[in-house]
Amino acid sequence: MTEAVQADHRRPADSAPAAPDRDLMSKFDALIAERQALLDSGVTDPFSIVMDAVKSPTEAVIRGKDTILLGTYNYMGMTFDPDVIRAGKDALDQFGSGTNGSRMLNGTFRDHMGVEQALRDFYGMAGAIVFSTGYMANLGMISTLAGKGEYVILDADSHASIYDGCKQGVAEIVRFRHNSVEDLDKRLGRLPADAGKLVVLEGVYSMVGDIAPLKEMVAASKKHGAMVLVDEAHSMGFFGANGRGVYEEQGLEGQVDFVVGTFSKSVGTVGGFCVSDHPKFEAIRLACRPYIFTASLPPSVVATAETSVRKLMHAHGKREQLWKNARRLHGGLVQMGFRLGTETPDSAIVAVMLEDQEQAVAMWQTLLDRGLYVNMARPPATPMGTYLLRCSLCAEHSDAQIDAVLAMFRAAGEATGVLPG
Amino acid sequence: MSDRQATFDKVAELIAPFNKKGVTLTEATSFQHDLEWDSLTVMDFVAAIEDEFDILITMNMQAEIETVGQLVDAVEKLKQTRD
């Protein structure tokens, strides 16, 4: 019966439908043509990578080849931590595979409460709310906090989830030049003094890996009576004495109203969250549509997150190794003559800047063929005209792996003409 | 010269550095289709307009402004609100 049903749904090879000349899908014709042109040039589609097997936080099999992973956000290498995996397995056995429902109704299990407590402990804050992804955390927090007649002020290089949170809400939106304290201050100064204002910042900007001058930006925000939300997705675990993020590193504890983060990077699973010391923070649960009208995370996921967050509190050795790896990679690439997105190793992201899409694809493909996976980024994920290869380091990368990575970059750079031969 | 004409002239002056194709400006000139500006160019231009007139044009307002004429009208209105 099962086979018969499957067979009924298979489409005969000769019956592929022909697209009409024009319909709602026509607006994507330019995108389809651009992708096809890329594939016709003989390269692998950079956005269709399949991990056939994952051997460790830093190694996978891609297209049958052992490959070093330098394009994941697994900064602290928690995905294969034995305690984390055991917690997930136990939760699967005890609570089943899914929750089926929203946190508001039948979707809150023991481990949702557990991971929220772990976050309170990690950040030393009174309030923690978990969302189903980091994207949902930004979507929910920004659209719920800023209402009609109020303002959201955001950095021009903000992540798509921040822009989408603005679109989802009804507040007035004002953006300022990337990392410009002066521009932020000027725009805040033009807003009505008595209107509600939310300034949204990121600790680490993910495309280039640069960090925000949060100290000055938070000061400017407070001067104008704005609340501050900082997305610390790309800093959790290894910035600040307790791994809380760039805001902790810059001595801003007690001055940031909301911190948003994710479980899909240093924590090594999936989910998003917001922590806050605001006494009315719990009211967000009652008003936030991306929290209320979506299914909660599976118990195995929140159990792994809780264990991982608690272990990150004490992961001092991993933090040191991650920073050491970042410095070695950044320094090595600079020495070879590559142009990087930041002058110094500001974060665990090292971006190699390239001239155009052809050069970026050629470098990316050559590295992949040699056994190194990095991210290729292009507009609209990057600003207009910016093409780069983004390397994300992991605390589990060994010295030998970083040496191998540098050797592959040198060879690929020379083979593609990015470096003089 | 009317206030509106003066505003149009100033807007045209501020568009000039971003008018890479040398498009002749009219009330109906479209920022997206005629001038073909990307998102970052829009931000730089809007910042220049805001600084010149000491006003604030939110992204919500920007979404409604498609032509030079509509921008001039919006600037005139915002100047009155400011004053």
TrEMBL record, chain B:
Residues 2-79 form the Carrier domain. PROSITE patterns: CARRIER (PS50075). InterPro entries: ACP (IPR003231), ACP-like_sf (IPR036736), PP-bd_ACP (IPR009081). Gene3D superfamilies: ACP-like. Keywords: Phosphopantetheine, Phosphoprotein. PANTHER family: ACYL CARRIER PROTEIN, CARRIER DOMAIN-CONTAINING PROTEIN. This is Acyl carrier protein. It comes from Stakelama saccharophila.
